[in-house]
Protein 1
Amino acid sequence: MRSTGTEMKLYDGGRAPNPRRTRIFLAEKGITLPMEQVDLGALAQMSADYAAINPLKRVPALVLDDGTVLTESIAICRYFEALKPDPPLFGRGALELARVEMWNRRLELHLLFPVSHVFRNSHPAMKEMEVPQVPAWAEANKPRIGEFIAFLDGELKDRPFVAGDAFTVADITGLVAVDFMKPAKLAVPDAECLGLTMRLTIVGCGDAFGSGGRFNTCFFLETAKGTLLVDFGASSLVALKAHRLDPDRIDAIVLSHLHGDHFGALPFLLLDAQFLARRERPLLIAGPPGTRARIDQLLEVFFPKSTTNKWRFSWDVMEIEVGRPTDVLGHSVITTEVLHYSGAPSTAIVLSDGVKRFAYSGDTQWVDALLSVADGADLFIVECFAYSGELPGHITWDVLKPRLPSLRARRIMLTHMNPVMLAHLDEVRAAGVLPAEDGAVIEI
Ligand SMILES: N[C@@H](CCC(=O)N[C@@H](CS)C(=O)NCC(=O)O)C(=O)O
């Protein structure tokens, strides 16, 4: 199969289980790729454009640089396993390879597929994708799922991972299948037990100037407890909509600092919620001391008298005291002051849902406090505005690179890059660091 594309791209399907398998696999490998969302809710997989890429009209699909198209989530995973064998996720050596294959197939045949049959044959939203829906087939699969889960539970008593001592693709299939039980309305084990607690979508990772066509900073975090954004720069409302992320899903926004490229779209979000989206749910905005006054100024500059609006939904501002652990809708947030002038304290943020830890430098020049911000983080996103030399208020690759070994985070990702820095992403990857990409989705 071939398409006319010229740049490697993954056609992704958001929460759907098979695209998720591939994304989690890529995240474990430390591989980032340009992605395009195929909106299954809008049946975009059925469009003529997408059918030209995958005539089977399913996601995921990977288009290689030469236009070759690979489909089937596990085939795509195998492709990347061959290109980047470490860490080995399909096992190594005859016995391990076979064991991983056995468990992956068991988890597909006895868990993922039955859960999918239940979902596709019973959920009203699937009417147009599963034709005809056969409710009796959904019912027939339900007891099989319970039996297999009980069997799996017994197996997992003596070892940490499904196929042995190491995390493999079989664990990814299991994790995605169990997570898929929720929309299928099957009783799910506690999300925190599954370690599936935080998912990041990069809405924007650009600098203030839109370098590389990237949107301003905005990280979209979904946890078992809610949907939180970190920063909301001037282009972030447009970016959310471009990525088909519904602003109404946002429970809270946490701001690192009060520069336009990190909080400038708040008036547009609030007015969109008021007049277009007709939001009813409350919204919490948390930021450094001074946030309330600066949001009011912003509202008045862009939309005079908007501060006197009679809001149809409640929105509150919480000013986070620097250095004091603060609860934001069940998440623990702790900020650290960094070095970047913004008329109020500029901060780095550590946000945890109790299981996973997300850390972000905010905008800053290098300060040693970033070592403790990164310490123990599952993902540390650090700004790296420029490539060479030293700069006031921002980190450069020259400054960051020698410090990478002392950053004790599971994964490190660069953001907020200017055009020169963006031209050196190969060097970043070679150093084992992920470059952020707008639209990338990462299971933390
Ligand atoms: N075996 C394929 C299955 C792909 C598949 O069924 N994808 C679903 C999302 S999980 C899909 O595209 N569904 C759209 C539809 O059924 O119309 C794989 O592993 O990639």
Protein 2
Amino acid sequence: MPELTLEEKLESELTEEEIERFQIEKVNMEQLIRKVCDILVEHESAGMLQNNLWKKLKLSDMTGSRLALKLERMGTITREKLLENGRWTYKLILKKTPISTQSIEDAPCLVCKVEQKCTLDGDISPRTCPYLEDWVVSMIKKPRFK
Ligand code: SF4
């Protein structure tokens, strides 16, 4: 029987809930996932060997494997098993970038007094709203990481 990869062992030992809820102590997971996405997006559909990604993020193999399983369950990445220098590993490919709640927390619509009257085709509309336009421009200028 071929040797199981670390991920296959983890999948047989952990429940789906344990995989999905994986957190690294004292680490902002949302920010870490965003970093993963930023790195993977540069590799487009060619993907990146997970060992190289863990090295870049200074994560151990175990932590990286747990993170990869979580990201796959979230629908953020796909994993392709492949043989590299005689060992099985995975290539990670970005599927979709998760939306961060941090990215909309300053949105003017969340505190807007006329939000009830705001419609796409009305007099008050996101198409013509100066507050929304200012906010979008400020978001574009903002660096992604503090
Ligand atoms: S688009 Fe402008 S007017 Fe409409 S809810 Fe947002 S801030 Fe308010």
